[in-house]
Design brief:
alpha/beta, TIM Barrel, 9-stranded parallel beta sheet, 14 helices
Length: about 270
C-alpha cells in the first residue's frame, strides 16, 4: 500500500445517508482526494465500504478504524477476499484497540492487536492492506513490523516526526482535524466540542502528555493545546499544517472537517481541495 496525497476522514460517509455519502465520495475523487477514511463503533462496516468503492475508481477506501472488539478477522477476511481485484487493491483496513471505558472485555492492547493480526493473516488479509491506529512507541513498532504502517489520530506534527522515527519506511497516514473558520474564538469552540470526549480517554491523554502537554492544558483544553492538535483558519492556514505533517514524515494526511452545527463538511472539502 503506497498511499500519498490528501484524504478525507468522515463519519458522514459511514453513518450518514448512503446515497449522499456516495455522491460525496464521487465528488471527493473528482476534487483530487486520494482516500476516504471512515470510522467504526460496531455494526455494519462493510456495507458502507462497498457503497464507497462502488462509486469511485481511484480513491483508497480505508477504515479509521475497524474496532477489534466489534469485528472478527474472519468476518473481515470473508468480505475482503470476495472483492473483485480492482476493488481489493483500493482497500486499507485500519484497525484499532478502542478504549477501556467503552469495552467490557478490554485487555492487553498489544496482545489483543497481535492476536487480531494473526487472525487477519489466517483470513487472507496481507500486511500491506492493513494498518494500526498506533500512538505509543510499542504499538508503532507492531504497526511497523506487521502492517503497512500507522494511522494516528488527534496528533500534531511533533508526533508525526516521532512516529516516522519508529516506523522507518512504513506508511504514516495522519488524521488532522481542521476548522475552516478565521475567528479564533469561534474556531476554538468548535474544536473544543469535538475533542471533549477524548480528553477523558487514557490512550489519548497519555499520548498528549508524552508530547509535553500538561494535565491542566488537556483537561481545560488550553489555546495552545487546541491550536496544535487542530488547525483553524483559512484554506492557506490549513494547507500549511498539512505541509508541516508532510515535512515531519507523513506519507498521507486525511483531514476531518469540523464546523458549526448545520454547516456541511463539503464546504471545507471544496475549499482545501488538494
Amino acid at each position: 500500500m503506497t498511499l500519498r496525497g490528501t484524504g478525507v476522514w468522515s463519519g458522514e460517509l459511514r453513518f450518514g445517508d448512503q446515497a449522499e455519502a456516495a455522491a460525496s465520495a464521487a465528488e471527493l475523487e473528482q476534487l483530487g482526494y486520494t482516500a476516504a477514511w471512515i470510522p467504526d463503533v460496531g455494526g455494519d462496516l462493510f456495507g458502507p465500504f462497498d457503497n464507497l468503492l462502488g462509486v469511485t475508481s481511484t480513491m483508497t477506501i480505508a477504515s479509521g478504524i475497524m474496532n477489534v472488539w466489534r469485528h472478527t478477522p474472519e468476518e473481515a477476511g470473508e468480505w475482503f477476499t470476495a472483492l473483485p481485484d480492482d476493488r481489493r487493491a483500493r482497500v486499507l483496513l485500519g484497525i484499532g484497540i478502542s478504549h477501556a471505558p467503552f469495552i467490557e472485555e478490554y485487555k492487553s492492547p498489544i496482545a489483543t492487536i497481535n492476536a487480531f493480526l494473526d487472525g487477519m493473516d489466517a483470513a487472507g488479509i496481507p500486511d500491506d492492506r492493513r494498518c494500526i491506529a498506533a500512538l505509543g512507541p510499542k504499538m508503532l513498532e507492531v504497526a511497523r513490523d506487521r502492517t503497512a504502517g500507522s494511522h494516528p489520530y488527534l496528533v500534531n506534527p511533533e508526533h508525526t516526526a516521532q512516529a516516522r522515527s519508529i516506523l522507518g519506511d512504513k506508511g504514516l497516514f495522519v488524521e488532522q482535524g481542521v476548522v475552516l473558520e478565521t475567528d479564533a474564538e469561534a474556531a476554538r469552540a468548535i474544536a473544543r466540542k469535538a475533542v471533549a470526549i477524548y480528553t477523558t480517554l487514557p490512550n489519548y491523554v497519555n499520548n498528549w502528555k508524552r508530547l509535553g502537554y500538561t494535565e491542566d492544558e488537556i483537561v481545560n483544553t488550553s489555546d495552545r493545546f487546541i491550536d496544535e492538535i487542530f488547525v483553524w483558519g483559512d484554506a492557506d492556514a490549513i494547507g500549511e499544517r498539512i505541509d508541516a505533517h508532510r515535512a515531519a514524515g507523513a506519507d498521507h494526511v486525511c483531514i476531518q472537517a469540523l464546523s458549526a452545527e448545520g454547516v456541511p463538511a463539503v464546504n471545507t472539502w471544496r475549499a482545501v481541495r488538494p
